[in-house]
Amino acid sequence: MLVVIEIDFPNSGVSCYSMQFTALNFKRYMLHSRLPDSSLLIRIRRAGEKIKEENQDKEGIENLDIGFKVFKLDTSNLKAWDPDVEELEETLKGMVDPIKEDRTQEDMLYEIMLKYGIDLTMPLEEIQIAGKTAYSVGLGYMIVCLEDGLTLDFIEAIGDMKQSGQEIARVVFRDSGFADDNVKTNAVQLLKKYGIKVV
Known about the structure:
Helices cover 30% and strands 19% of the residues. It is built from five helices and eight strands, in the order ββαβααβββαβαβ. The protein has helices spanning 38-54, 88-94, 105-115, 152-163, 181-193; strands spanning 2-6, 28-32, 68-72, 124-129, 132-137, 142-145, 170-173, 197-198. The strands form two sheets. It has a five-stranded mixed beta sheet. Strand 5 and strand 6 form a beta hairpin. The longest helix has 17 residues, at 38-54. It is flat, with a radius of gyration of 21 Å. The two termini are 28 Å apart.
């Protein structure tokens, strides 16, 4: 998996043409400093296909991940706290849901990964747990669910996953994602019983 991070520095000469893929068993990162355009993405795709073509004799080459993700730097997905005392009531109401309105669950997922120092090339899988959409990060190392209305059935399903052998070390939920405060309190205790850290 190649990760392309876009930073807009005008007149920069960074180019993916200069990249040489010499070792097939290492993940590669490329810092590219111009906004992505279709020709850049086509060149990256062709470079991946060429690697496979030129290394057909290597064992496991058909399973080589030549996909890529493109990231662009942006502001945080969370609203900034504004301690304006004159509008304190409005500020507090706005912070009930601290996630900016125009952000997706995927935006939040990648910010969570960055905040916990998790490599952006880690495997991600969208999964269903007790009727809720969640993300398994790093083959189940971390489960992220940003949906609302979470119940103890959902929490127990995560516990069952852990007991069936998945190495779930931590789970991430929205603070407001639980059906009510009782569910939230019981969820924390239940997950602790399973040896899972709640974030």
